[in-house]
């Protein structure tokens, strides 16, 4: 549900900022940075917003940290009542470079002159992994709704009706539009987001679901592809368990102070 960006005094609200930040994911885990409790503090001063955040470990990939902080900045600045968002990444081995780069609108290469290339190939690879994992969730929802593998692999974007007024469900048309099946909309919407981000909806194939390589699925291979997409989700869950442990340890009350600052 969308949150009104303005409070009673006409200023942007913390709830609205947090709702925008909830759209930012840890690219390795494909999970919201709000859900992962990376956000330490949100400060609002008129049309300016400061967001402080800490990742599970100081050694988190600089490319991953860069993606999360730039995405957080851009999401908050997308609010109509925000003129500037400033990000304060804390306790990271490259916090100085990242905070300067993000807040001064530098490119990754300008912030890290010694870096080997940009973050975009990394982002594309992680988006593809997320697309595969989300496909497993979406096809699982369709199976639960009663569709079979042959019907699922034949679906196109035009067969989905996600804009049902005031409803969390979607309508999926099968049998050449002769039958509509009601399905939870969330896994389908999440899949479509990554399918679009990876360019899958713009290629020459109309089929909505694909093999991990991006090819249409032979109905006889549906279960094999389901197994492969499941493994992508399992891999992310495994990474998430490691991050959960690091996150819990980092925020433990008896943890010694950790600072990467040299001064």
Helix content: 40-55%
Q: How would you state the average pLDDT, rounded?
A: 89
Q: Please tell me what the overall shape is.
A: globular
Q: Could you spell the SSE succession in H and E letters? A: HEEEEHEHHHHEEEHH
Class per helix and strand makeup = alpha+beta
Instruction: Give the low-confidence spans.
Output: 258-263
| End-to-end C-alpha gap | 44 Å
Number of strands: 8
Number of structural domains: 2
Helical run tally = 8
The strand order across the widest sheet is: 3-4-5
What fraction of the residues are assigned to beta strands by DSSP?
5-15%
Radius of gyration: 21 Å
Organism: Haloplanus rubicundus
Protein name: DUF59 domain-containing protein
Describe the structure.
- The chain is an alpha+beta fold.
- It folds into two domains: 14-117, GMP Synthetase, Chain A, domain 3 (2-Layer Sandwich); 120-240, no CATH class.
- Helix content is 41%, strand content 15%.
- It has helices at residues 14-21, 62-77, 95-103, 108-111, 120-144, 149-153, 185-197, 222-250, and strands spanning 25-26, 31-32, 39-45, 48-54, 84-90, 160-161, 169-174, 179-184.
- The protein has a three-stranded mixed β-sheet with strand order 3-4-5. A three-stranded antiparallel β-sheet has the order 6-7-8.
- Strand 1 (25-26) and strand 2 (31-32) form a beta hairpin.
- The radius of gyration is 21 Å and the shape is globular.
- It starts with 13 loop residues before the first helix and ends in a 13-residue tail after the last helix.
- 33% of the residues are buried.
- The model is unreliable at 258-263 (pLDDT under 50).
